[in-house]
Amino acid sequence: MATSSNLNPAFAYTVVYVKDVAESVDFYAKAFGYSVRRLDESHRWGELESGHTTIAFTPIHQHETDDLTGVVHANRSKQERPPLEVCFVYADVDAAYKRAVENGAVPVSEPEMKEWGQKVGYVRDTDGIVIRMGSHVKPAKLD
């Protein structure tokens, strides 16, 4: 019999569909400071060491998923963006932003302090996906 404790899932993967898995794994490792966990020999799957949740990469077009769940579409223009934003938290957002841009990330917005108390900057990866680079936000005090 199932109990509520074994029905609560752990968030395990975010899968990013990309043009070139090996290129994306290398880019994310250099630009955002992650270690590569796995890049299979076929270059159809790659993973980064990112804590409890794995960031994984797979090709945009592959018959295994296209037939089951539908075709993934890339952006048609630079004015479009996918309905996904990847967010990374850093102690030093300015240094992380600089490293990302120096390693091929496309600058969107330099880090600035937001009204909710988080320093945030934005870049795009090699596939046009928006990456938010932010500081930790201190939890609000409850009265």
Automatic annotation (TrEMBL):
Q: Which residues form the VOC domain?
A: 10-136
Cross-referenced PROSITE patterns, in alphabetical order? Answer: VOC
Per its UniProt record, what SUPFAM superfamilies does this chain match?
Answer: Glyoxalase/Bleomycin resistance protein/Dihydroxybiphenyl dioxygenase (SSF54593)
Q: Matching CDD domains, A to Z? A: VOC_like
- According to its UniProt record, what is one Pfam family this protein matches? Glyoxalase
**Matching InterPro entries:** Glyas_Bleomycin-R_OHBP_Dase, Glyas_Fos-R_dOase_dom, GlyoxalaseI/FosfomycinResist, VOC_core
Residues annotated as coiled-coil are: none
What name has this protein been given in UniProt? VOC domain-containing protein
Q: Which organism is this entry from?
A: Trifolium subterraneum
